[in-house]
Amino acid sequence: MSKFKDVVVTLSKKHPQTAEPVQAGHTFVIGVLGKKTAFYEIATEQLNNLHNDDLQKALFQLLHPQTPHQ
To answer: By C-alpha distance, which of 53, 10, 46, 52 is closest to 31?
Structure first.
């Protein structure tokens, strides 16, 4: 079973799919878990206040969204 610690985090100034440059003051946070990839854009200033664990947890949630139990 995958854990958030298994997510490999990469930062980029270019969109991961289109290679377009990100807007000024922003960064793309890209996560890879096995064959799955997810990403989101964040203000670089905000990024400076986060730790790798925070990024891994956020990306893990994108890669494995919680489904409500019924």
So the answer is: 10
